[in-house]
C-alpha cells in the first residue's frame, strides 16, 4: 500500500511536534533557571563608568525606526555611548541572532524583536542572558515580560480605526461598542484585515476572537463573509483607510493611529468592549554581549522615566508603572468630539498557548478567509 | 555552415581563436577550474539551503536532525492538493502569460528602437528603462493609487466620464497582477534584446526584402528566427524571475487570497515561529523548475551556428523604413511608456508630495515635507554610497564573469564542465531572494565577510552573473567564428583578435548587459534585507523600511530621489558609451 502523508495526518504531526518543542524548550528554560542565578541589572555608577569605557553597543530591534530612534538618541545624549541600530522586522531578527550565536559570532548586545516565541527559543539555547530588573514588580505590571529573559517597555492597544467619511463618528460609536460592529451590512467590502501569517498582532487579535466564547470561530466566519480586503502588512491597511478605499481595518494599534492623526490623517478610532493588549517588544540582553556593561546599562535605562518620556513623544504608551500619560496626541485628542480614553477590558495572550495552536489555527484562519489550500 | 565558410571553404579552427588559446594555456583543466570557481561561490548558499531543507530545524540548532518531512510535504503537496500544489499552479498561471506578454512587448520595442526609423527612438530607449530605476513595490504603490476599485484616481476619472458603473479598473485581480508584472518585466526583455538587435547583420533581411517579402514576413521568417537565442534567453529569464517574484503578487494577490510559491516561501521565513527548513524545501522546488526551463533553453540553442547573424561579410546595419507604420509604432511605444512607466511614476511622485493619503486629491495640500525628511534622515548618504558602489562593482564583475563563462559555454569544447557551469550559474536566480539570503546567511556567518558590504557584493555576483552569461552567450552565438579565424590567419594574435574583432562586436551587448545588471543590483532588496548591517544599508532597504513602517510618502519620495540619481548615472553612462553603440546603426 503506498504511503501518503494526508493533510489531517500532517497537521496532527505538526501539532504534536509543536507541543513537544514547547515542552522541551520550557524544560531547558527551567533547567537554566535552576542552574543559574538570575542577574539583577540596575543602573549603578560602576556600570555607567564601565559602559562608557566600552563606548558603544549594537541594538537589534523590530519597532518602527521613527519610534525607536528618538529613544536611542536620548540614551546616547545622556551617556555618550554610541548605539548602532539594526532594524530587523518580523521574526528575522531572532533568526539572524540564532545563526550568529550557533556560529559563535557574538555581534548583537541588546534586542527588542517583537518575537516572544523566538526569544524563548534562543533563551533555551542559552543565547540570552538570564536577568531581571531591580524592583521589577514596582516597575512593570504582569503580562509585560517573560520573567528572566525579556521585558517590554511599551503597550500595544488594539483599537478599531475608521475613516469618518466612510463611517461617521456617531455610527462608529454605536456599532463599534463591540467587535460585532464589523458585521454591519454597510461594511460589506469596506473592511480590511491583515493576513494572519503577516504579523503577530494580526494573528493574536484573531486568536482573541477564536478564544472568547462570545465571539468564537463563528464570528470569524461571519467576518470573512463581509468580503474583507486582505493585506500582507498593517501599513497598507492604514493607507487604505486614509484613502477611503476601506472604512476600517483590523488590527490597528493606538499609537500608530495617533501618529496618523497627528500627521493630519483622516482617521479616528474607538475601543470596543474588549481589546487585545500586548507587550511583546521584549528587551533582551545577549548572554555573550560584546559590550557587556553598555548592554546592561541600555537595557536597564529602557525602564526609566527618561526612556518612558522619550517613548511617549512617539505616542507610545510605556509599560513603566507610575508614569502619567503625557503623550502629545492626548492633548490634541481631547479637543475632538469623538475621542474617548481607553475603557476596554484587556485580553492579553499567553505566549506558550500561542505557539502550541499556531500550526493549526493560523492555516485555519487563512482557510476561513478564503485561501484554498 | 557560416557565410565565411561558404565563401572560403572550411577554415582550420584548432588553436586559432582566443578561447582555444586560453584552453591551450591552461590545458584541459580550464573548464574545470572555471567550474570549481563557480561551484565554490554557488554551492555554499545552495548547499546550505539543501542541507537546511533536510533538517528538522535550522542548521546548527540543538536537537535538529535529518528528516525528509519538509521535503515530502512540499513535493507530495504537488499531487495531493497540498499548499505547494495550489501555490505552484498559481505561480505558473502568472508566470506564463507574464513571460509571453512582456517578452513580446519588450522584443517589439527593442526592434523598433534598434532597427527602425521610429520617431523618438533615442528618447524612448531611456524612457523604457524608467521602471527599472525604482523598486517593484513602488510600482505597486503607484498602481494601487491609480487603480484601486474604491479609491483609484483612474477610477475616479472614469466615474466622472461615465458614471459609477465606469469604475472598472481593479488592480487587485488576476488581470491587475499580470498587468503590473508585465510592465515590470518589459524593460528586462527590452534590454536583453536590444544589444543583439544592434549587433545583427541585416543581410538576410535585405535579401528577403529584395525577394519581395513585406515587413511582417521579414520579421516573422527572418528576424525572429535569427534572434531566437536572444529572445529565448530573455523569455527564460523572465519566466524564472516571474516565479521568484513575491512582492507584486504578494501585495496585490493577498486581496484575492492568491498564494504563489514565492510568496508562500517568504511567508514561511517570516512567520512566528518561522519555518526555515520548510522555506528551504520549497526553494528546491523552484530550483527544479528553473533547471528544467534552462534545459529547454540549452536544447533550443544547442546548435549555436543557427544564430550567427554577425558574419565576415562587411555590413552596414540599415534602419528599416516603417513608412506609414511609423506613427503606429510611435503610438505603440508611447502607450507602453505611459502605461508602464509614466502613470505609476506620476502617482508615486504625487504620493511623495501628499502629507497624508486622502479620499480626494487636494492640490493645495501638496508639499515637500517628505523630501525634507529624507534630507535630514540618518543613513541616507551611506545608503546612497553603498547602493551606487555595489551596483557599479556588481555589474562590472557580473559582466567580466559572465563573459568568461559565456565564451567557455558557447565556444569552448563541449565538455561536461561547461554544461555543469552553465546550469550552476543559473540556479541562484531561480530562488526567491529571501531564501537565497537565508542560504547566504547560513553559509557565510562563519566568515569575516559576514555583515560587511562585501557579502552583499558576493551575493549579487552569485545571483546575477547569469545575466552576463545569457547576454554574452546570445551575443557570441551571433558572431561568426570566421571573423576571429580571419584575423588570426591575417597574423593577428588571439589577444588582438579578441580586442579588435570580438570586443567591438560585443560592445552593444556589453553596454546593455552592464546597464541591466547595474539597475537590477541598485534596487535589490529581498536578499540584502537578510544580509545587511547598519554599515551596509542600501537605498532599497531604507525605502522598504519606510514602507513597512507605513511612511508611504517618505518611501515614495525616496524612490523619486533614487530614480533621479540613478537616471543621471544612466544618462552619463549612455553619453560615454551609447554613442559608440549607436554608431553601428547610424553609419
Offer a few descriptive terms.
heterodimer; A: 373 residues; alpha/beta; D-Maltodextrin-Binding Protein, domain 2; 6-stranded mixed sheet; 46% helix; 17% strand; globular; disordered N terminus; B: 587 residues; mainly alpha; MetI-like fold; 26 helices; disordered C terminus
Summarize the structure.
By secondary structure, chain A is an alpha/beta fold. Chain A is built from 15 helices and 17 strands. Chain B is built from 26 helices and no strands.
Oligomer: heterodimer
Number of helices of chain A: 15
Figure out the total of helices of chain B.
26
Helical amount of chain A: 40-55%
Largest sheet data of chain A: 6 strands, mixed
Assigned CATH superfamily of chain B: MetI-like
The chain-level mean pLDDT of chain B equals 83
**Rg of chain A:** 22 Å
General description of the model:
The complex is a heterodimer of chains A (373) and B (587). With 373 residues, chain A is an alpha/beta fold. Chain A folds into two domains: 31-154 and 279-329, Periplasmic binding protein-like II (D-Maltodextrin-Binding Protein, domain 2), CATH 3.40.190.10; 157-277 and 343-368, D-Maltodextrin-Binding Protein, domain 2, CATH 3.40.190. Helices cover 46% and strands 17% of the residues of chain A. Chain A contains 15 helices and 17 strands. Chain A has helices spanning 7-35, 45-54, 65-79, 92-102, 116-124, 136-139, 169-175, 200-211, 216-225, 234-243, 254-262, 292-301, 305-313, 328-334, 351-369; strands at 39-41, 56-61, 82-87, 110-112, 131-133, 145-146, 150-152, 154-162, 191-194, 229-231, 248-250, 252-253, 268-270, 274-278, 282-285, 317-318, 345-347. In chain A, a hairpin with a 3-residue loop joins strand 6 and strand 7. The longest helix of chain A has 29 residues, at 7-35. Chain A is globular, with a radius of gyration of 22 Å. Chain A starts with 6 loop residues before the first helix and ends with a helix. In chain A, 52% of the residues are buried. Mean pLDDT of chain A is 90; it is low at 1-5. Chain B has 587 residues and is an all-alpha fold. Chain B has one domain (3-586): MetI-like (MetI-like fold, Orthogonal Bundle). Chain B is 72% helix and 0% strand. In chain B, helix 9 crosses helix 16 (325-353) and helix 15 crosses helix 19. Chain B starts with a helix and ends with a helix. At the A-B interface, helix 1, helix 3, strand 3, helix 4 and helix 5 of A face helix 4, helix 14, helix 20 and helix 25 of B.
